[in-house]
Specification:
The protein is 41% helix and 17% strand. By secondary structure, it is of the alpha/beta class.
């Protein structure tokens, strides 16, 4: 018998193949993903799934939920995107990325099913479909009890939306992003995100935006799904440091509970509150104590989201208009006390001029260091510098090489704070640089 080509691949070769999948596939309908899972024996059916969608904050909410369940002794799987350094980051068991061996075995099983579909005249799985299928196979092999799943893009047509019976769905903040795919209004985007709501399944959502809430609540009513909205009056910020925020949560099980979010970003108050509200709905019998849930929030580590990677050096994956607006609010809370240096880059499809304008109109950095992301989505550092020069009188340093730009920015920080933002790819590059220096 002929040995299949994918069985011969080692871990690195398998990852390279997956990364090249976008070059020869296009978007498939959810029915295609459902067929792939069927041929894999429905690995998605054996777990209690919490399905999370939204524009910003969904990864953080997933991380908070995973930490709560893990601390409670539940074997918990976590599927998120994108990865910052290694592809294994997307697939975690009890908040630890899966091994290279488990990844390779799971990939080989999925590729076998993909080959059978192609042989039957069906399209090859897309990049995200393949990764999602690998996640489900790996999680089944690990016998996970719970699975926290983050949607890729949108919700209604997302590969993860083939999950049939989640125990809860969560929708985080809604804002304008990927408008060419999801729609050009808050209502249209909210409708796509609300596509994950299932009949009779509780939905917990960020109810601060009236336009989004109206769409989500209407869809929940249509499907008789119990709906629980997080409102601004449910939480109150008590104080913050340059590493964390203390707030009081006043809803349900958490009446007057003091919570510490281990980030300096105010939006993490919303994300952690949403996760706590979701756990209140999921764990009605309160088998996971209030104290343990709050401890889990305090101990959650989530890469690239206002993450302090070195003393005085913070990386943040803000990469769209709303993300940058939240990023700016965080910097505003500390810029009166610290010298601020900004390291910035962006990818071509984002409205980087709007992002830069927001930064310059609401922040007062002493220096801006501009660099560029390599690849077909590149925006030259010189172009970004030109835009910054339109909106700020701050000193601008242009350095296309990310490693050199990071070194320069750290030197310029002096005793202040260095913020690195504008793209998750930039965050990933910086994390990789730091990993290499620690080896």
């Amino acid at each position: 018998k002929t040995v299949k080509w994918w069985i011969k691949l080692n871990y690195t070769e398998a990852v390279d193949y997956i990364l090249n999948v976008p070059k020869f596939t296009t978007k498939n309908k959810p029915e295609h993903t459902a067929e792939l899972l069927k041929r894999l024996g429905h690995p998605d059916r054996g777990m209690k799934v919490i399905h999370v969608a939204g524009t910003n904050g969904k990864g953080s909410v997933c991380a908070f939920l995973s930490e709560m369940l893990t601390l409670a002794g539940k074997k918990t799987a976590l599927f998120t995107s994108p990865h910052l350094v290694r592809i294994n980051e997307r697939f975690q068991i009890n908040n630890v990325p899966i091994s290279d061996g488990l990844f390779l075995e799971s990939y080989q099983e999925v590729q076998k099913a993909i080959d059978s579909m192609v042989k039957d005249g069906l399209p090859h799985a897309t990049y995200f479909e393949l990764l999602y299928a690998v996640a489900m196979v790996a999680f089944q092999r690990e016998k996970a009890e719970y699975a926290v799943l983050e949607t890729g893009l949108g919700g209604r047509l997302d590969a993860t939306n083939t999950i049939e019976h989640p125990i809860a769905t969560v929708i985080t903040s809604i804002s304008l992003d990927h408008t060419e795919i999801l729609g050009d209004t808050i209502e249209k985007i909210a409708a796509e995100k609300a596509g994950i709501i299932k009949e009779g399944v509780p939905v917990i959502y960020d109810g601060r935006n009236e336009k989004a809430e109206k769409v989500i609540r209407k869809r929940a009513e249509e499907l008789q799904a119990p709906a629980f909205a997080l409102k601004e009056e449910m939480y109150e910020i008590l104080g913050n440091t340059d590493k964390s925020i203390d707030f009081c949560l006043n809803c349900g099980y958490y009446e007057h509970a003091k919570v510490t979010a281990p980030y300096l970003a105010p939006y993490q108050v919303v994300n952690s509150s949403l996760a706590l509200l979701a756990m209140d709905v999921i764990d009605r019998e309160q088998k996971i104590s209030r104290e343990l849930r709050i401890r889990a929030i305090r101990e959650t580590k989530w890469q690239g989201r206002m993450e302090t990677v070195l003393p005085g050096v913070i990386v943040d994956g803000a990469h769209n208009a709303d993300g940058i607006a939240q990023f700016v609010k965080t910097v505003q809370s500390v810029q009166d006390r610290y010298r601020i240096v900004l390291l910035f880059s962006a990818v071509a499809e984002k409205n980087y001029e709007e992002m830069i304008h927001t930064i310059c109109s609401q922040m007062t950095p002493a220096v801006v260091v501009v660099t560029e992301i390599k690849g077909d989505r590149i925006v030259p550092a010189g172009e970004l510098s030109r835009v910054f020069a339109k909106y700020t009188d701050a000193r601008i340093v242009t350095e296309p090489d990310i490693a050199k730009a990071f070194t320069k920015a750290r030197e310029l920080r002096q005793n202040g704070l260095l913020f690195c933002a504008g793209s998750l790819y930039l965050v990933g590059e910086i994390k990789e640089i730091l990993e290499k220096t620690r080896m």
